[in-house]
Q: What sequence folds into this?
């Protein structure tokens, strides 16, 4: 690696350390000298030290930082050296640097087109209250849901997913024969053939176009995008169709689950055409940045759904704990995305996040200090669409961005959650 | 005089915090004897499993450390019980299977980085025992940390390990007299034999505690891990 690259990386690492340090010690904290031992000098206690390191791990993508620090001083100088070594590990700094920025350096993936579809039956929240035997006005008053989109007769995951996929292909002027992979995700489709295979047949994709289903429930879209990005980055594919489709209204029905849970969900789908930017000089679209993923197991008990022997559904749903977890974790993910991308949240055009319900979206916006209007109102009009919530929000964000001149388009942040508590985040930047 | 079965001896900076079990009527409850002028003991020559006689006076302890009692006289050792028996008594004291039941309140994650905390006025107690589905110790940037899964499946990460015996064990493992690559050897032990020794032990048990309120929060700690480490384990790595 050229010396200038080393110094540029050091600068990035220093900025990252300082940001994480201020997160831990307070915005007005004085940055200590490089050689000061943060614990011995009492700048941080042992709890804060570990917390500081975990924040650096998330922001830098360097895993298990603490292992490299055993037996060493707790100083900025040591941390900078460890970060530098982590990037240039395996003997070859340049090769490692390429590996770290695999997707972006080798073959960046561009979101070239998108679409979304929702169930054709629009039901006002009060009707859903009645169906679930809840006090009328509860969904609107407590969750902020105005209406829900339910699949009409003849609509299912395949129909909605295919509709979104065809629209995305049309918007991207891409023939289905150009698609190398279909990556599908759904939290409600549990049939065989799997959704990706059904989409493959319905769309009449090439026989050697691969089809893959990924899981993650509401996090499914981010998982699917990350998989697609890797396939493009490694040169395995040039064009990939990522599809989400969720039909909750046939599973989470009155009498089977409580309205406080089942009443939140609607039906929808989304689709994204991802292309390799290599050999494609056309401008437009959004470049996929990096992704952050993890699992916060302390919230595992907040939501659990399983089948029982008699065919009924066991739902363990601690709404209050889940709401708290969702807000805390999404705020944390967005903060990590901000740190890792170097894009200040104030300059983000849109936040395409999961939306458990509109009330939580408003709370998240407040906690993050960003306008509520930066979150496309998906859950308010259609309900929680599972993996398609984030998809519909991302499609809406891209659609809004397309109304601006290319030079005026702003970055988009992604954040989502799934039971477990799985979490993920990422970002997109306009391709100019 | 009160008879206390000593179950916790934890390191708090240069001092020690001690908790014991008291049999009162039908129940067994945790009691934290503290000196008259501090929250911890600078010198505590006893071991877990010791049954000590002492004079304790209740005082209005700040929530959630409702187990605090002032020790008005020194401790007299009456007898001692084996580790397995100590754990059998702990299983009859404060117990929980899930995160919200540990301290009778919501447990929050640190929004900035790592660690879990409760709000001092919400917590109903400051110590609780539990079984674990799995447990891992690691030396992370010179700090001993635990990650564990509760019976509910909830995972607790980055808990500071304050158990005196385990901390002493780690100090001994890292002692310069033990030759080269001490940290790597200890990590290897934690990643291999440790797991078998702990999880296969019939009296494997942990107790989680809360720190005193610090900047509005009480942080979760791993106070006690049974079985306690044995000196001969040091010969194995």
A:
């Amino acid at each position: 690696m050229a010396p200038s690259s080393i110094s540029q990386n050091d600068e990035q690492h220093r900025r990252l350390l300082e940001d994480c340090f201020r997160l831990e010690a307070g915005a007005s904290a004085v940055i200590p000298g490089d050689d000061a031992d943060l614990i011995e000098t009492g700048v941080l206690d042992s709890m804060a030290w570990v917390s500081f390191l975990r924040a650096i791990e998330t922001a830098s993508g360097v895993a298990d930082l603490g292992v490299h620090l055993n037996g060493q001083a707790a100083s900025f100088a040591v941390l900078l050296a460890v970060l530098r070594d982590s990037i240039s590990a395996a003997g070859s700094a340049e090769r490692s640097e390429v590996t770290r920025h695999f997707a972006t350096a080798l073959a960046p993936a561009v979101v070239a087109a998108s679409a979304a579809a929702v169930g054709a039956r629009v039901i006002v929240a009060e009707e859903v209250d009645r169906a679930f035997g809840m006090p009328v006005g509860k969904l609107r008053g407590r969750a902020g849901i105005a209406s829900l989109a339910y699949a009409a007769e003849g609509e299912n995951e395949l129909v909605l997913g295919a509709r979104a996929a065809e629209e995305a292909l049309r918007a991207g002027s891409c023939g289905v024969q150009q698609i190398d992979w279909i990556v599908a995700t759904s939290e409600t489709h549990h049939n065989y053939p799997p959704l990706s295979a059904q989409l493959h047949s319905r769309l009449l994709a090439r026989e050697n176009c691969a089809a893959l289903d990924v899981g993650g429930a509401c996090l499914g879209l981010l998982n699917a995008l990350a998989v697609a990005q890797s396939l493009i980055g490694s040169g395995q594919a040039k064009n990939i169709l990522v599809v989400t489709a969720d039909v909750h209204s046939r599973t989470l029905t009155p009498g089977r689950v409580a309205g406080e849970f089942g009443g939140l969900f609607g039906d929808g789908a989304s689709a994204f055409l991802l292309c390799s930017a290599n050999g494609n000089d056309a401008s437009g679209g959004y470049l996929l940045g990096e992704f952050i993923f993890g699992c916060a197991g302390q919230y595992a008990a907040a939501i659990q759904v399983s089948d029982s022997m008699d065919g009924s559904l066991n739902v363990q749903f601690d709404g209050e704990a889940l709401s708290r977890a969702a807000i805390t974790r999404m705020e944390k993910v967005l903060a990590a995305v901000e740190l890792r991308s170097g894009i200040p949240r104030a300059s983000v055009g849109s936040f395409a996040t999961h939306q458990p319900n509109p009330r939580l979206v408003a709370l998240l916006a407040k906690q993050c200090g960003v306008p509520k209007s930066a979150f496309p109102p998906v859950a308010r009009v259609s309900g929680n669409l599972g993996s398609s919530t984030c998809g519909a929000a991302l499609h809406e964000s891209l659609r809004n961005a397309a109304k601006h001149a290319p030079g005026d388009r702003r970055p988009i942040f992604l954040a989502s959650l799934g039971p477990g508590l799985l979490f993920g985040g990422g970002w997109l930047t306009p391709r100019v | 005089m009160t008879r206390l079965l000593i179950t916790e001896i934890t390191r708090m900076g240069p001092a020690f915090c001690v908790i014991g079990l008291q049999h009162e009527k039908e129940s067994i409850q945790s009691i934290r004897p503290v000196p008259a002028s501090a929250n911890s003991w600078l010198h505590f020559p006893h071991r877990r499993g010791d049954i000590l006689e002492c004079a304790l006076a209740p005082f209005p302890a700040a929530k959630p450390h409702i187990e605090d009692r002032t020790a008005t006289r020194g401790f007299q050792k009456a007898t001692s019980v084996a580790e397995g028996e100590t754990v059998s008594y702990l299983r009859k004291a404060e117990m929980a299977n899930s995160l919200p039941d540990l301290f009778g309140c919501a447990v929050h994650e640190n929004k900035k980085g790592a660690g879990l905390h409760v709000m001092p006025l919400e917590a109903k107690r400051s110590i609780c025992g539990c079984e674990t589905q799995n447990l891992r110790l690691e030396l992370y940037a010179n700090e001993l940390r635990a990650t564990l899964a509760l019976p509910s499946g909830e995972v607790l990460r980055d808990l500071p390990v304050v158990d005196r015996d385990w901390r002493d064990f780690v100090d001994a493992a890292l002692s310069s007299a033990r030759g080269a690559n001490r940290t790597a050897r200890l990590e290897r032990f934690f990643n291999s034999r440790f797991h078998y020794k702990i999880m296969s032990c019939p009296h494997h048990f942990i107790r989680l505690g809360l720190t005193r309120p610090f900047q509005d929060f009480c942080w979760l700690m791993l106070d006690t891990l049974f079985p306690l480490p044995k000196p001969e384990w040091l010969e194995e790595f």
Observations:
- Confidence is low (pLDDT under 50) at residues 90-104 of chain A.
- Chain A has three domains: 3-100, 107-276, 286-430.
